[in-house]
Design a protein that fits this description.
The chain is mostly helical. It has 12 helices and no strands.
Length: 260
């Protein structure tokens, strides 16, 4: 019973850390990191809530796209988008290591970071709007969200943590043990299986396509992080989530459109 209660508290702490969902628990960072293996379930929650606009009438595709995009970003409190912009700033400065880290920590944004942020939002909106035309739109958006949040854990398992005590370091360290990896796999299967059963072929294609996308984005994010910073931190994790999400939404849309 104590074990179940501990896992539940870790899940609430992780929810509180990664989203703005009011769970009425102020868990510490250590609890959030210990529950990091449950991050696909955070993706499930974010996906379900973000896909609720899909119940609107079919003639409101543009509105659906705007609302889905808005929810995907605001539910996280924009922390991943902020990390994305920070890493773009650092990686576009043509410098590395300590100087890049200094740029990463600066509060302002350069033109490249702002442009890249606008582009990533437009890609997300485009994919979300097109998937709204499918009867399984809710399942598709939720499925993609689960896989994208899972990419955070997968990147953390592959990564070398930062040399300083940043937010990402503890999560990376807790994702390296075998038990967390097994539990993460079970959580991912648990989250995706009902969606595949009820969503059918389109959702299965979305699962395969989304994992194919992160099979490309993960090595790129990892290689880029090592080249610029020499390690992976919370900003790089945010970068990976934003890139994989926008590309997954668009790619799934293209693949399903081709198979129609």
């Amino acid at each position: 019973m104590k074990g179940v209660l501990k896992v539940f508290k870790e899940f609430l702490a992780l929810t509180s850390f990664l989203t703005i969902i009011p769970v009425r628990l102020k868990g510490d960072l250590k609890e959030s990191a210990e529950g990091f293996f449950m991050v696909p379930l955070i993706g499930l929650m974010v996906g379900v809530i973000s896909s609720l606009p899909e119940v609107l009438p079919e003639n409101t595709i543009l509105v659906k796209g705007v609302l889905v995009t808005l929810l995907l970003y605001t539910l996280s409190g924009l922390i991943h988008l902020d990390g994305f912009a920070d890493f773009i700033d650092a990686s576009s400065a043509k410098t590395t290591k300590d100087k890049a880290l200094k740029i990463l920590k600066e509060p302002w944004r350069g033109a490249k970071a702002i442009s890249a942020t606008i582009l990533i939002i437009l890609l997300t909106y485009t994919g979300a709007s097109d998937l709204s035309t499918y009867t399984s739109g809710m399942y598709l958006i939720t499925t993609i969200a689960i896989v994208n949040y899972e990419s955070l854990f997968l990147l953390a398992t592959l990564a070398k943590p930062s040399t300083y005590e940043g937010l990402g370091k503890l999560f990376i360290e807790h994702s390296s043990n075998k038990k967390s990896r097994i539990n993460n796999t079970l959580a991912t299967v648990l989250a995706l299986t009902p969606l595949v059963i009820y969503g059918g072929r389109d959702v299965l294609i979305a699962v395969i396509t989304s994992f194919s996308v992160i099979a490309i984005t993960l090595p790129y994010s990892l290689t880029r992080a090592y080249k610029v910073l020499g390690f992976v931190n919370g900003d790089v994790l945010g970068y990976e989530l934003e890139v994989s999400r926008s590309l997954s939404l668009v790619t799934v849309s293209l693949v399903l459109g081709f198979l129609r």
